[in-house]
Specification:
Layout lengths: L2 H12 L2 H14 L5 H4 L12 H11 L5 H13 L2 H13 L6 H10 L3 H17 L3 H12 L5 H12 L6 H6 L7 H18 L15
Helix pairs in contact: 1-2, 2-4, 5-6, 6-8, 7-8, 8-9, 8-10, 9-10, 10-12
């Protein structure tokens, strides 16, 4: 690695916004694979909101597309890290989607003991469903289970994900969000999710066979 590249990485890691953003812009133009590995630790700097270093690093890494090094690093953190690190890794997989991580994301979205990990895994699957034809159908069952979860945060994430799927079954499911016991779901977000879904599907969509069953 040459000195100029090393300095750009140092500027991102510094957390100083002006330096990090300038370095981010230059690295996105360079698209050098050499910068990926030293930037990976920055991805774990999310704690409820991404740090400057985490945000700049994820922007650089995501601009270079899928990468086995990134995928393997994040999956390892998701598997063995502490709760904060694992949530950070799930967030990073949403921001820099890796299709090879889909089986793991499905598992953690269904069963993980940590609420934040499950929420970010659901959002990561949503992003990948936009890119991969057919994945929406593959995760629909996970989302139906999640909208029944006792955690309002997980239910909220699941309803939001459903509203963005290219599947007409989403409209009748989202109408049930209006009856959720949590006001942030039923009153704040529910109406906008339904508007978004109906617009995407050309108006009110009749449920398919089996979609009127209780969830």
């Amino acid at each position: 690695m040459n000195g100029a590249l090393r300095r750009l990485i140092t500027d991102i890691s510094s957390g100083t916004e002006a330096k990090a953003r300038r370095a981010e812009a230059k690295l996105k133009k360079l698209k050098s694979p050499e910068c990926i590995e030293p930037l990976l630790p920055c991805l774990l700097g999310w704690s409820g909101f991404p740090s400057i270093s985490a945000d700049s690093a994820i922007n650089v890494i995501s601009s270079m597309g899928e990468n086995n090094l990134v995928c393997n690093f994040l999956l390892k953190q998701l598997r063995v890290g502490n709760e904060t690190v694992r949530a950070n890794a799930a967030w990073a997989l949403k921001m820099a989607p890796q299709s090879k991580a889909i089986p793991n994301l499905k598992r953690y979205a269904r069963n993980d003991r940590n609420e934040e990990v499950r929420i970010w895994c659901l959002h990561a699957l949503k992003v990948m469903a936009w890119r991969i034809p057919g994945l929406g159908k593959g995760i629909f069952g996970i989302l139906i289970k999640a909208v029944k979860d006792r955690s309002a945060g997980i239910r909220c994430a699941a309803f939001e994900c459903i509203s963005h799927l290219h599947d007409p079954r989403c409209v009748p499911l989202l109408e049930r969000a209006l009856e959720d016991e949590d006001d942030s779901i039923s009153k704040v977000h529910g109406p906008s999710w339904i508007r978004h879904a109906k617009k995407a599907h050309g108006g009110i969509v009749k449920p398919r066979k089996g979609c009127d069953k209780p969830i």
